[in-house]
Specification:
Helix content is 96%, strand content 0%. The chain has 48 residues and is mostly helical. The chain crosses the membrane at residues 7-27.
Length: 48
């Protein structure tokens, strides 16, 4: 009985994870763009 409850929780968690993957990838891409932009700005400031 306990094992089936654990299995249900695990399946719910994995379903949430799979559902959130596209949005995580989307936000990850935006974060990457922001980091790249800020790094380029820093390089410009350093190089003058």
């Amino acid at each position: 009985m306990v094992w089936s409850v654990d299995l249900a929780i695990l399946s719910i968690r994995s379903a949430w994870f799979i559902a959130l993957l596209p949005s995580l990838a989307f936000y990850g891409r935006w974060l990457e763009l922001l980091v790249n932009a800020s790094m380029e700005t820093d390089q410009r400031l350093v190089n003058g």
